[in-house]
Task: inverse folding
């Protein structure tokens, strides 16, 4: 389980997130990070959440918002590590990453956190990870999964957003 | 090449070309002084962020990059624009604003969706 305690966190020199409630992320649950453009959703993911998950030694798959650079990096990695494997699309990349994750999980089970920043592929992600319980944390401007727990971002100013779990 | 059949392609999955300063995007989209001022004013109205030609565009959020892409297109000389997945990364207020500005732009706009 990952907990981000109630606090004021300077995520960038000129931008802070005011965490109004303790935020808890646990396997078996889905979390929808919502809020307007520029309210700090991606900053929470990259500057707070991912470092905490890394400290916990859990498995993590993070799909960036504009994924093309990630795609090139994983293509290059696959070309070095698995020469027969051709990766030509985001779907190929996801399949490759989940195959690697499944092998690692089989050898050493740990908590799994999937993070998808504005992904088109949420349903696909959940299907690809059906071999193990996992937490899915996603940002979206649309309500894609009705059962997901909501974490909302509200900009107080350009320099600070509130983050809270709505009632 | 028959330019009447050419669209400026704007894909929200790849919103910016350079990833460095705004100046490079302004040159690529061929925005002149008046168009640049309109772009800066519009972007400030929507996001509260003051752009300038040396602004590091990688400091913008993912959605803000898509807003910038949309207005670079709308203020460019291109007469035909094809937006791909424009709606995906934008909140409802920004999407409404862009759709309103598309309507009054007088440009031929095509929307495509990758999924």
Result:
């Amino acid at each position: 389980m990952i907990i981000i305690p109630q606090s004021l966190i300077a995520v960038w020199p000129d931008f802070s997130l005011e965490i109004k409630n303790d935020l808890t992320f646990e396997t078996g649950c889905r979390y929808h990070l919502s809020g307007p453009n520029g309210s700090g959703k991606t900053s929470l993911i990259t500057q707070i959440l991912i470092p905490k998950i890394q400290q916990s030694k859990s498995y993590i798959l993070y799909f960036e918002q504009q994924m093309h650079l990630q795609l090139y990096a994983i293509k290059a990695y696959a070309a070095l590590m698995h020469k027969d494997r051709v990766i030509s699309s985001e779907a190929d990349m996801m399949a490759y990453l989940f195959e690697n994750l499944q092998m690692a999980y089989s050898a050493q089970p740990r908590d799994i956190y999937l993070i998808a920043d504005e992904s088109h592929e949420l349903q696909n992600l959940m299907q690809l990870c059906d071999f193990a319980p996992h937490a899915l944390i996603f940002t979206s401007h649309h309500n894609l999964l009705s059962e997901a727990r909501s974490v909302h971002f509200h900009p107080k100013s350009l320099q600070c957003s509130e983050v809270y779990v709505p009632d | 090449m028959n330019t009447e059949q050419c669209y400026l392609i704007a894909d929200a999955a790849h919103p910016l070309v350079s990833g460095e300063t705004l100046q490079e995007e302004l040159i690529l989209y061929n925005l002149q002084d008046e168009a640049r001022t309109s772009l800066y004013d519009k972007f400030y109205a929507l996001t509260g962020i003051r752009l300038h030609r040396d602004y590091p565009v990688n400091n913008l959020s993912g959605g803000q990059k898509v807003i910038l892409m949309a207005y670079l297109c709308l203020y460019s000389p291109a007469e035909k624009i094809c937006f791909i997945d424009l709606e995906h990364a934008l909140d409802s207020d920004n999407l409404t604003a862009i759709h309103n500005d598309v309507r009054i732009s007088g440009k031929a706009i095509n929307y495509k969706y990758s999924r």
Remarks:
- Chain B touches chain A through 24 residues (CB under 8 Å).
- The helical segments of chain B are 22-28, 33-47, 62-74, 92-105.
- The mean pLDDT of chain B is 92.
- Chain B has one domain: 3-112.
